[in-house]
């Protein structure tokens, strides 16, 4: 009796797991296949390069967000930090390549560090702390751009521009940077003790503390990472656009959270993958691209579709876990 | 002997500190409002004028209406991130039905608010999704939907009766301020004097215990989110009327942040089980006064935003639960 019933349960559980893990991948493959057939321009190398480049900036942010969400937290400040990072990079570029890259990473990383310290040491809710730093970072951005009136340009011949516009076989450098970061992130998450601590923190915080997992330290590192990566994405975008655009990144945190959740990472924490997040980025960008291809469709459908996708995923996650 | 004295002395010291913290949590917002009023009366030109007070109240009215709903939701240990998107939806609905008369348009906007809120409530209560996630979907999709409805356009409104809502007054008091005040009274009555109010707090205090005690937990939750939705829609209608245009792209942008801030600054804990309506009203007034003070002293937007961020952190720090 026991031998017949026991395999049934893991099989159902395995099926659930496959659906949860691969649901986004299946949707992505279907979307790509259908788009390829319906829209002749979709499959063109130019379009695919553009798609990958657009996705790479979001992917860099979403990788950091994945870590934060697995610890059971959330980081709403990344959209502002992305814009701030871009402006700092553009401003710093007058002092050379190193300044243009280091300044956004250090400042945005520092704001991420403050997020982490406040969340880990004072027991304040992550979404309130990071909402406040969303405001703070925008304020800081306005302060250094003469209330948003000043857009810093990056000299076209500078080495920093190459970072955003340079290509290998037509594929932009940011795509490779995002890919390297994704692989690194996946390895850190699955192959290191820090990764284990991230999962433990989000899975059952109290038990993790009792087991001696450095929960506070893990949280601080994770928010610092998220801030730094948002700054990097901003710097790459500034290099690509050749200027520090002040108005970008509004609502970007929602895109980042959406792709992480669509990729199968649980918002309750304790479970998630970087690969899922990358697939989530691909899915959102393909949808965006298709809506643009249709042309007659209002671009505002993008957020409607994202919202519906998000809803379906969280409801499915919830039902499958029962 | 000496040891016991020290011990009791320490205990008294701790309990005094705890009492001081509790007092600050309960009354900090009133003290802060009084201090800001005093500061402005002394150092800000033209502050103590009727015109200035009217302007401040008119600006604060939509935030207050949204914050009232948010206070109820936070009382159930939830949060509603979709309020700004619901305001945008209400704004987008208005021009569609204004041809049939202002009353029809307003009713339709409010119906959409109730439906949006009830949808959030169902996701939280029946499906069992965390409030922050359940309402995130509507935050992402709601404004997009509003823009799709409005075809991305800002629509000027010319219906005089409808515009009266935003510009008119009764005995010198602007209609929107009257409505906000009235709604504050209604919500205060609802939380303090009705069974629903008691159930709401019970659900927020301990949902499991409330379920075991036989309270209609699901119905309370759906009701609370529906109220929050309709209040957001009312705020959207009033703001649209004052603007004399339907602007779903900007309507209620970051309103969730303002509302949550006001509620938390007003002493309602994010952990649920307690709703402070008067505190919320003063939380809204405090944040409005802060903004007005910064503007009147010619501090740029950048500094104003950073100061607001600091105030939010300070308020949540004082109000945070102790472990």
- Indicate the CATH architecture of chain B: Orthogonal Bundle
CATH class of chain B: Mainly Alpha
Task: Please give the largest β-sheet of chain B.
Answer: 2 strands, antiparallel
Compute the gyration radius of chain A: what is it?
20 Å
> Biggest interface, which chains?
A-B, 45 and 44 residues
What portion of residues of chain A belong to β-strands? Answer: under 5%
What is the overall pLDDT average of chain A?
Answer: 87
Question: What's the helix-strand series of chain B?
Answer: HHHHHEHEEHHHHEHHH
Strand order of the largest sheet of chain A: 1-2
The helix content of chain B is over 70%
Topology pattern of chain A, helix = H, strand = E = HHHHHHEEHHHHHHH
Question: Strand portion of chain B, in percent?
Answer: under 5%
Tally of alpha and pi helices of chain B: 13
Attribute tags:
heterodimer; A: 322 residues; mainly alpha; two-stranded antiparallel sheet; 13 helices; 2 strands; 76% helix; globular; disordered N terminus; B: 323 residues; ABC transporter involved in vitamin B12 uptake, BtuC; two-stranded antiparallel ribbon; 4 strands; 77% helix; 2% strand; transmembrane helix (chain B)
Describe the overall structure.
Chain A: The chain crosses the membrane at residues 20-39, 51-74, 94-118, 125-144, 171-189, 220-241, 301-320. Chain A: One of its GO terms (cellular component) is plasma membrane. Chain A: This is Monosaccharide ABC transporter membrane protein, CUT2 family. The complex is a heterodimer of chains A (322) and B (323). The longest helix of chain A has 37 residues, at 2-38. Helix content of chain A is 76%, strand content 1%. By secondary structure, chain A is mostly helical. Chain A has a domain at 54-273. In chain B, helix 1 (2-43) packs across helix 12 (277-296) and helix 12 (277-296) packs antiparallel against helix 13. Chain B has one domain (27-41, 50-319): ABC transporter involved in vitamin B12 uptake, BtuC, CATH 1.10.3470. In chain B, the strands form 2 sheets. In chain B, strands 1-4 form a two-stranded antiparallel ribbon. Chain B has a two-stranded antiparallel sheet with strand order 2-3. The radius of gyration of chain B is 21 Å and the shape is globular. In chain B, 77% of the residues lie in helices and 2% in strands. Chain B has helices at 2-43, 50-75, 83-97, 102-127, 131-149, 160-167, 175-193, 195-205, 207-212, 217-243, 255-265, 277-296, 301-319; strands at residues 155-156, 169-170, 173-174, 245-246. The longest helix of chain B is centred in the N-terminal third of the chain and has 42 residues, at 2-43. By secondary structure, chain B is mainly α. Chain B contains 13 helices and 4 strands. Chains A and B meet through helix 5, helix 11 and helix 13 of A and helix 5, helix 11 and helix 13 of B.
């Amino acid at each position: 009796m026991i031998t017949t019933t026991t395999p049934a349960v893991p099989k159902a559980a395995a099926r659930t797991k496959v659906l949860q893990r691969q649901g986004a991948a299946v949707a992505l493959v279907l979307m790509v296949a259908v788009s390829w057939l319906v829209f002749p321009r979709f499959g063109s190398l130019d379009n695919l390069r553009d798609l990958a480049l657009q996705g790479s900036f979001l992917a860099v942010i979403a990788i950091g967000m994945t870590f934060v969400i697995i610890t059971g937290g959330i980081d709403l400040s990344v959209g502002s930090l992305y814009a701030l990072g871009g402006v700092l990079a553009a401003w710093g570029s007058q002092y050379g390549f190193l300044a243009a890259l280091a300044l956004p990473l250090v400042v945005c990383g520092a704001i991420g560090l403050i997020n982490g310290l406040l969340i880990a040491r004072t027991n304040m809710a992550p979404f309130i702390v990071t909402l406040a730093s969303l405001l703070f970072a925008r304020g800081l951005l306005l302060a250094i751009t003469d209330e948003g009136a000043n857009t810093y340009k990056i000299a076209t011949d500078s080495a920093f521009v190459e970072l955003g516009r340079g290509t290998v076989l037509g594929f932009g450098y940011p795509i490779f940077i995002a890919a390297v970061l994704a692989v690194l992130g996946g390895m850190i998450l699955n192959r290191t003790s820090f990764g284990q601590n991230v999962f433990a923190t989000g899975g059952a915080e109290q038990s993790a503390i009792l087991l001696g997992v450095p929960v506070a330290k893990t949280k601080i590192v994770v928010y610092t990472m998220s801030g730094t990566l948002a700054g990097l994405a901003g710097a790459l975008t500034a290099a690509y656009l050749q200027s520090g655009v002040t108005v970008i990144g509004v609502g970007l945190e929602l895109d980042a959270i959406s792709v992480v959740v669509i990729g199968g990472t649980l918002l309750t924490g304790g479970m998630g993958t970087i690969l899922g997040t990358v697939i989530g980025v691909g899915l959102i960008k393909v949808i965006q691209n298709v809506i643009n291809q249709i042309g007659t469709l209002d671009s505002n459908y993008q957020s409607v579709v994202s919202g519906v996708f998000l809803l379906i995923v969280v409801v499915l996650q919830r039902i499958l876990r029962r | 002997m000496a040891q016991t004295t020290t011990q009791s002395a320490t205990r008294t010291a701790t309990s005094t500190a705890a009492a001081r913290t509790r007092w600050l949590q309960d009354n900090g917002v009133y003290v802060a409002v009084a201090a800001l009023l005093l500061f402005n009366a002394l150092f800000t030109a033209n502050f103590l004028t009727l015109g200035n007070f009217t302007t401040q109240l008119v600006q604060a009215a939509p935030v207050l209406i949204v914050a009232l709903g948010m206070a109820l939701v936070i009382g159930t240990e939830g949060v509603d991130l979709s309020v700004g998107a619901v305001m945008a939806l209400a704004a987008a609905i208005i021009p569609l039905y204004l041809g049939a008369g202002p009353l029809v348009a307003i009713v339709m906007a409010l119906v959409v608010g109730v439906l949006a809120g009830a949808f959030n409530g169902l996701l939280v209560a029946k499906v069992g999704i965390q409030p922050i996630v359940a309402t995130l979907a509507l935050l992402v999709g709601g404004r997009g939907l509003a823009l799709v409805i409005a075809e991305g356009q800002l629509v000027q409104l010319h219906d005089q009766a409808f515009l009266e809502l935003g510009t008119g007054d009764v005995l010198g008091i602007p209609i929107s301020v009257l409505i906000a005040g009235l709604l504050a009274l209604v919500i205060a009555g609802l939380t303090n004097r009705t069974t629903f109010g008691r159930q709401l707090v019970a659900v927020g205090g301990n949902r499991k215990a409330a379920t075991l005690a036989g309270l209609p937990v699901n119905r309370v939750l759906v009701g609370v989110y529906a109220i929050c939705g309709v209040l957001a829609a009312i705020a959207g209608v009033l703001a649209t009327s004052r603007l004399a245009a339907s602007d779903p792209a900007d309507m209620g942008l970051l309103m969730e942040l303002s509302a949550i801030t006001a509620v938390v600054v007003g002493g309602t804990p994010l952990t649920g089980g307690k709703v402070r309506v008067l505190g919320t009203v003063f939380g809204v007034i405090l944040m409005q006064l802060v903004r007005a003070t910064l503007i009147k002293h010619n501090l740029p937007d950048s500094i104003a935003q950073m100061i607001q961020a600091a105030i939010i952190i300070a308020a949540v720090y004082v109000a945070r639960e102790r472990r």
